Amino acid sequence: MAKLSVYGIPNCDTVKKARKYLDARGLDYVFHDFRKEGVDPERLARWIEAEGVDTVLNRRGTTFRKLDEADKTDIDAARAVTLLQSQPSMIKRPVVEHGVEHAGGLLVGFKEDEWDAAL
Hints:
By secondary structure, the protein is an alpha+beta fold. The chain has a single domain (about 5-119), classed as Glutaredoxin (3-Layer(aba) Sandwich).
């Protein structure tokens, strides 16, 4: 299997659990800290197209809750890309690209049973 690409923030508890999961299974991955390295808009658009705005956008986090009410409503894919690029901490974590050259699949968030099935 091709190497996995894991996107997240290193101090996020869910990302830590996900990385422990991968390490325990000996799965090879590259970690991309999107707070430091950012995420390009094309990749964000692909994630949103594949999984939907409501899956990729973390509405439960502090950063989203601090937005003005006007910024929280009517978020379509294009607005979501702009928001997530400027505030990557609003991306649900982690995001994992897996499969043949990462065209095979995408996991958003960490649910062990979903990861077992996909990986």
